[in-house]
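Problem 12. The chain below contains 125 residues. Write out its predicted structure in token notation.
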Amino acid sequence: MNELAPGLAGSHHAVVAEADTAIALGSGSVPVLATPRLIAWLEAAAVAALAGAIPDGSTTVGTLIDLRHTAATAVGRRVDAFATVSSVDGRTIAFELQARDGEEPIAAGLHLRVIVQTEKFLSSL
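Solution.
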């Protein structure tokens, strides 16, 4: 098991498809990468960073995204999303987020996830 500590990092890589655009997701009227899809890819990077670091029977849930999406990405372009653990405070894990389209930064921000007992969390729904 990996130690849950600052510095753990994960990534997610995807090529923007028509289904990932603002038009397809209803978040805008242009055929570029939608912010909601970018957020999902960044959350996937955060989950990947925690692989092997969360106790059995537990998972994490996202509780905050503070993201600056600063550049548009066209269909067919590859996006690299990165999440690095910046702090751990009890059950709360903070991540620094970054995304790039090739060498160009397209987003940066903060993400919080909280460790929960999977069964207890699901039974509370």
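Discussion. The chain has a mean pLDDT of 97. Students who got a different answer should revisit the alignment rule from Section 12.3.
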